[in-house]
Specification:
The chain is 39% helix and 15% strand. The chain has six helices and five strands; from the N terminus they run ααββααβαββα. A five-stranded mixed beta sheet has the order 2-1-3-4-5. β1 (61-66) and β2 form a beta hairpin. The protein binds zinc ion. Residues 87, 89, 116-117, 119-120 line the site of zinc ion.
Length: 188
């Protein structure tokens, strides 16, 4: 299903204006409005994941939103930077902190296409990010709900509100397609 989006010059699969009906704002979210904004920002994270895919990186994307503005954005760049810490969330968080001129990301929401790993969940704690929205669960590395619950552990000094499953099917399909392609390449 991502073939179109991944073909250069192909029609963009993801239309950021799709399904909009206006209404609501990030500053004064009603529940329905919040869900709508969540979709919008997750779509942006998903586009960054598609970019990562095209660069032969594990396709994960993330954005940090502050007062309705994206202040940090990144796709996974582990291969390009040859850096085990270059996860999408880490890149987006570092950018956001630079934008705010503060390590503490008060009032920010992190959107990421895949459930954060222990390292990224740790960075989310360190940055005191109050809200995290993720797409697909990660059965092999998820540290928010699946394997560990780092962002809701009362022993730690910070907890984040968590929303999961936003555009999960699309987020997971991209990863599945990537790893399927990798396996096929491995067989050649
Ligand atoms: Zn991570």
């Amino acid at each position: 299903m991502f073939n179109n989006a991944l073909t250069p010059g192909g029609k963009p699969l993801l239309d950021i204006n799709a399904g909009g009906g206006g209404g609501g704002s990030p500053e004064t979210p009603d529940l329905e409005g919040l869900a709508e904004w969540d979709q919008t920002y997750m779509l942006r994270a998903l586009q960054l994941a598609v970019d990562a895919y095209e660069q032969d990186e594990v396709p994960v994307g993330a954005v940090v939103v502050h007062e309705g503005r994206i202040i940090g954005a990144g796709g996974n760049q582990r291969e390009a930077l040859k850096d085990p810490t270059a996860h999408a969330e880490m890149i987006a968080i570092t950018q956001a902190a630079a934008a705010l001129g503060n390590w503490r990301l008060s009032g920010c929401t992190l959107y990421v296409t895949l459930e954060p790993c222990p390292m990224c969940a740790g960075a989310i704690l360190q940055a005191r990010i109050p809200r995290v929205v993720y797409g697909a669960v990660d059965p092999k590395g998820g540290a928010v709900d699946t394997l560990y619950q780092i962002l809701s552990d009362s022993r730690l000094n910070h907890r984040s509100d968590i929303t999961s499953g936003v555009m999960a099917t699309d987020c997971a399909a991209l990863l599945t397609a990537f790893f399927r392609e990798k396996r096929q390449q491995g067989k050649k």
